[in-house]
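User: You have something folded?
Assistant:
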Amino acid sequence: MKPVVLAITVLTDGHRAQIAQSFELLYAPEPAQAAEAIARHGARVQAVLTIGSIGLSAAQMDALPQLQLVCALGAGYENIDLAHARGRGIALANGAGTNDDCVADHAFGLLIATVRGIVQLDARTREGVWRTALPLPPNVSHKRLGILGLGTIGRKIAQRALGFEMEVGYCNRSPKGDLPYRYFDSLQALAAWCDVLVIATPGGPGTRHLVDADILQALGERGWLVNIARGSVVDTAALARALRTHAIAGAGLDVYESEPAPPAELIALSNVVLTPHVAGWSPEAVQNSVDRFIANATRHFAGQPMVSPI
């Protein structure tokens, strides 16, 4: 008998077929579908595949008496009740390392688009406006880049910054002794130092609204914000005020608190670039994530150590 897996996140037909080669797959990507699947098949489910923003609650786990494993498809797992899972002896894993390059690429795309004003330059060009009627867009090279959260994705972003001869600083729970970048023990100090602040920290209650009005004030009118982490890390109302009043120069956001609805406070602002939480999405990255889930689950059910346990 194949282990029974309940997937409560979106998967392509091809990836569902790939998973179904090794597991009995119950596919329920919408909340109502997930509730129905748990009600009908909960007694049989042995593993759940989810993502950080969807998670898996204690109540959902308790409706799955045979549950042995919860996997996050990507790196994030902020809405999985880890303590409850561990209390029940449920194994936990994620897709750490499967989309780091993709996220870092997107972060730099947002950074360049934001600092250089690419989106607005595109619009002006289509209107027939020539460069002599426009303000000069700043360099990206030689700016100071501050990174909040120097995990695997933060390190990849820092690597890309070196290609632009940027000076890199970071704020983390503790300094990384193996890296040459400048360490700041407070986000306030990092924001005051850098020209571009990139958010690469995990989401969840512990990081909610770390970037608030005070941090944006420290970043200043010649500073830019880029967020490829979780929307909850940034106080959206404070960011909207800072952008409207030009208290900061601009922002590039792949994530926002209102997901999947667009951030209403920011839509009309010309000094923000928005993308719909796609930083970790590419054919390569998603395939890596699915492959990792299969590897983790296969190893778990074979009694072997998983590749990327939480």
